[in-house]
Automatic annotation (TrEMBL):
Belongs to the carbon-nitrogen hydrolase superfamily. NIT1/NIT2 family. It comes from the Bacteria. It comes from Paenisporosarcina quisquiliarum. Keywords: Hydrolase. GO terms for molecular function: hydrolase activity. Gene3D superfamilies: Carbon-nitrogen hydrolase. InterPro entries: C-N_Hydrolase, C-N_Hydrolase_sf, UPF0012_CS. Residues 1-237 form the CN hydrolase domain. This is Carbon-nitrogen family hydrolase.
Amino acid sequence: MKIACIQLDVAFAEPEKNFSNVQKYIKKVASEGAELVVLPEMWNTAYALTQLEQLADPEGQRTKEVLSELARTYHVHIVGGSVSTKKGDHFYNTMYVFSNEGELVAEYDKAHLFRLMDEHLYLQAGNQANVFSLGSIQAGGVICYDLRFPEWLRAHALAGAKVLFLPAQWPETRIDHWKILLQARAIENQCFVIAVNRTGDDPNNQFNGQSMIIAPWGKVLWTGAEHEEYAVIDVDFSEVEEVRTRIPVYEDRRPSLYEPLFEK
Ligand SMILES: NC(=O)CCC(=O)C(=O)O
C-alpha cells in the first residue's frame, strides 16, 4: 500500500491556513498514487491552548466534513493526525480516521496528556483505545506522548493492530527519544509504526520533523527531513506475519506473570 506522510509546518492559531494546506497536500499526494494519508498532531490550531475557546473545532464538525470529502473525492484512506476539538464543555486532542469512501471509522481522544506542553491544564484525556480497520489492514492510532507508554501501544497490538499510526508535535530537544522509542515500539510489537511529526516552530518549541516509517523488524523505511515535506512510500503489510512467525513473541508472552503487577 502506498502511504503518504505529510509533515506539515503547522501555522500557530491559524486554522484557515492549516485547512487549506492540508487540502492542497492531500490532492497532491493522491495525484502521486497515495492510498493512505497520515497527518501530524493538532494540525488545525497547533498548541494555541489559551485560544481554544475561539479556535477548537466544535464537535470536530469542520474537520470531519473536510476529511470525509477529501477521502471520498481522492479515494484515499485518511488517518487525520489530530485536531483540537470542543466536545460538550471540554477540549480534546482528537484523531479522526476516514476510509477511502469517506466513512468515519475511528475517533480517538489522546489518552496521555503532556504536562510539559500544558495539555493537562486545558484538555481532557480520552479513555478509549483506538483499533480500526482500513480495507484489509487492522490498525491502531495513538497520539504523540502516548508513545512513552509501551503498555498502551502493546494493548493496541494485542487487540489486533498490525500497524500503529502516531501523529505528533514532538520538539527538536527530545528528537533522539522520538527515534529510539518509535523503533523500539515497532520491534517489540512486531508491527509497522508510521509516525508523522510537524516542522517549524510555535512560541515555545521548535519542531524538526523526522517523521518515520518503521517495519516490524525495526528497519527504518523512511525518515522525513527537518522542513515541511511529504513522501509517498510503499509498505508491504505482509511483513508483519513473517516477523511474528520468525520470533513468536505473541505465543511466548506470559501475561499471568506480569498482569498482576499492573494492578498495583
Ligand atoms: N505533543 C506531545 O505529546 C509531545 C510529547 C513529547 O514531546 C515527549 O517528549 O514525550
